[in-house]
Amino acid sequence: xxxxxxxxxxxxxxxxxxxxxxxxxxxxxxxxxxxxxxxxxxxxxxxxxxxxxxxxxxxxxxxxxxxxxxxxxxxxxxxxxxxxxxxxxxxxxxxxxxxxxxxxxxxxxxxxxxxxxxxxxxxxxxxxxxxxxxxxxxxxxxxxxxxxxxxxxxxxxxxxxxxxxxxxxxxxxxxxxxxxxxxxxxxxxxxxxxxxxxxxxxxxxxxxxxxxxxxxxxxxxxxxx
Length: 225
What we know:
Elements: E1 2-5, E2 11-14, H1 23-33, E3 42-46, H2 52-59, E4 63-68, H3 71-83, E5 88-92, E6 104-109, H4 138-150, E7 151-162, H5 167-176, E8 180-190, H6 193-204, E9 214-223
Parallel strand pairs: 3-4, 3-6, 4-5, 6-7
Antiparallel strand pairs: 1-2, 7-9, 8-9
Helix pairs in contact: 1-2
């Protein structure tokens, strides 16, 4: 078990195999803190990982449900909720079954978004936390669809992902579902160990130039009519 933290968030513990908060967590945390949240706000954290965003939303006063398919993530999020005295309901559930329609006011998500060569999503192991399929969009697309089904009228989605999986496509998908959507924040960050490991394949796919050492992360904000 190792300590982890976000620059803008609570102290957390992440066991081996659980997604530790990184630059993308920090970027999404800033967006989350900018949203109007009260004790009447129902928040869903899709793919909660360490539970970082769920804890922050609970500390802001929201009623929070966190969902993840990984038992390791579920137990990590529950532990971090206890450590931070945050009231959170954590469920092990697939994205498509995360909740009933029109249930939440705000969905936040840091889904797996790194393009990967395997051809299908992993069923087990640490790679589930970052492997987004051949184009990086397998889970990103499902988050868009789930948020559209889940949000109440006027509800919002906040999602972070890399430009490697195309923010314009995310916006097109969300607007095609009837939502208004835009990139509201972005940051250029150095490669972490995952992208370093995948660099040769990403260059071969034309997704990276050989000399590139940074990636751009974006926050997509979408609103239900």
